[in-house]
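User: Structure with nicotinamide-adenine-dinucleotide, tokens only please.
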Amino acid sequence: MAKVGIAGFGTMGSEIALVAAAADCEVNVYEIVPEVIEHNLRRLPKVLRMMKRESSEEERTKVMARIEASSDPSSLADCDIVIEAVLEKLELKKDLLSQLGKEVKEDAILATNTSSFGVTQLASASGRPDRFLGLHFFNPPSQMQLVEVVPGLLTSEATRDTAIAFVEKLGKKPVVVKETPGFVVNRVLVAMAVEAMSLVEHGIATVKEVDDALRLGAGWPLGPFKLVDLVGLDVFLHACESIYSETGDSKFHPPLMLKRYVSAGLLGRKTRRGFYQY
Ligand SMILES: NC(=O)c1ccc[n+]([C@@H]2O[C@H](COP(=O)([O-])OP(=O)(O)OC[C@H]3O[C@@H](n4cnc5c(N)ncnc54)[C@H](O)[C@@H]3O)[C@@H](O)[C@H]2O)c1
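Assistant:
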């Protein structure tokens, strides 16, 4: 995988680009908002310093020089793998993947970083379902080791194997997961956080007590409420609704407490207030 393409240079796309550049790949980025490009090209050197503490300034400059960002989708045309990391909106993703399926070279793999949409339906939109799969990175990609590798119904074995090798080249740990709502990590986390909210709603423990209990008694690095504050309450509610609507399983039913916080605009760290104040 000499050349990597990234569509969407936001929270996830920017750091996936950085991880690939740090693994010696040339990276072409396509992002529609020029300010986002400027912002993240300024931010990434700081992230890189945290990621590679032992590296010299010269090495870091070389890594950053491997990232080229533009607002022209044709810049992705000669990439060997393109990872789509645009907003979690189904029609947006389908339209973009359909366009990329036509523009990107024939034997390239297209991947999506979606957290909630079916890989197979996005694969169909791309027009190359055998060379398409989900590569689900975790936030922040510069720090988190796991990538869930999610083949769709028509993904070829060769595509899956190439993608696994690519993830390993990035220094990440691939775990192959069957296509299912929430994959593995979000499926388990959502169920646990919903249960945590139910305890608070029933007056059994406070937000802080539940967080302390899970941290000190179960070895969680962050309690469930601190974690949801970090992810964003709106993002978490979307994950909950999506898994619940696909499975109909009550353990994923979006808690009233969560909906009320989101309605009030208390979205977590990004708005300086969620379950906690920042
Ligand atoms: N944020 C997380 O914690 C997280 C974790 C895992 C997976 N994901 C998934 O990653 C994807 C991206 O999420 P994010 O948090 O980085 O979102 P984000 O909003 O930070 O970034 C998305 C970027 O895509 C750009 N964009 C929108 N339309 C575009 C287009 N047509 N062409 C090119 N760029 C376009 C936007 O300008 C924005 O910069 C989503 O599918 C999300 O579900 C997010």
